[in-house]
Amino acid sequence: PAIDPAVILFKGVGTWGAIAVAVAGMAPTMAMNLNPQEPAEHVGRVVPLVFLLSTVVVLLVAWCFARLAHGHPNAGSAYGFVAAILGPRAGLVAGWTLLGTYLCFAIVGLGAFGLFGANLLQRLDLWRDASSIGLTVLAAVVAATLTIVPARRAGLALTFLEGVAIAALVMVAFAVLLPVPLALCPTTRRP
Questions:
Q1: Which residue of 88, 159, 186, 187 has the smallest Cβ count within 10 Å?
Q2: Considering the entire predicted model, what is its pTM?
Q3: Under 8 Å CB-to-CB from 175, ≥6 apart: which residues?
Q4: For residue 46, what is the DSSP state?
Q5: In this structure, how many other beta carbons lie within 10 angstroms of the beta carbon of residue 24?
Q6: Considering only CA atoms, which of 157, 134, 161 is closest in space to residue 147?
Q7: Which residues have CB under 8 Å from 23's CB, separation 6+?
Q8: Which carries the bigger pLDDT value, residue 32 or residue 135?
Q9: Are residues 181 and 44 in contact, defined by beta-carbon separation less than 8 angstroms?
Q10: Do residues 130 and 117 make contact, with C-beta atoms less than 8 angstroms apart?
Q11: How far is 164 from 171, CA to CA, in rounded Å?
Q12: 132-146 vs 88-123: helix axis angle to the nearest 10?
């Protein structure tokens, strides 16, 4: 009998570990932190509408992936679906393109850590001459070191770190939104 790829995929990691890696890999904190600024420059105050429409589109794409996975089960990500529907040559191109996307995403993530980390250290006066290149190299070394950590522990670590980041974003949201009701409802009246 054929071996189900999902069984092989989840055997070493476990379901919760796979979910943890997927959620942390999607990095909702980076999306929440970096995405609103760019649309705000172009659409102004209707950013929530843009995000609502984007959510609908993402849900439609997710539905398409679910339908494709039902008809063509594989553990090969999107390029597996492309190969199943459009043929092996298109699947090969999609696979290499996806690999390039992942590599670019990793490089951008490491560079962002270096830039934001150096800026933070300089602003907090913890390291006045913080080097963004040095922090980027440090992040690359840590990322390379984490590749040898067993996937179970990596999933737990990613879930914990993403939880800390989400908690920090919630605190920032409260710090930004808390003054709004106070400004709208002043407690002192002028004579």
A1: 187
A2: 0.58
A3: none
A4: G
A5: 20
A6: 157
A7: 158, 159, 162
A8: 135
A9: no
A10: yes
A11: 11
A12: 130
Read off the tokens for 115.
């830039």
What's the pLDDT tens digit per position in 133-187? Answer: 999 999 999 888 877 777 667 677 777 877 888 888 788 878 877 777 766 666 6
Structure tokens at 89: 């040559």
Q: How far apart are CA 176 and CA 15, in angstroms?
A: 36
Length, in residues, of the chain: 191
In terms of C-beta density within 10 A (0-12 exposed, 13-18 middle, 19 or more buried), how is residue 17 classed? buried
Confirm if 19 and 158 have CB atoms less than 8 A apart: no
Which tokens is 138 given? Answer: 């440090």
End-to-end alpha carbon distance in the chain: 86
> Burial code of 94-115, b = ≥16 C-beta within 10 A, e = fewer?
bbeeeeeeeeeeeeeebbebbe
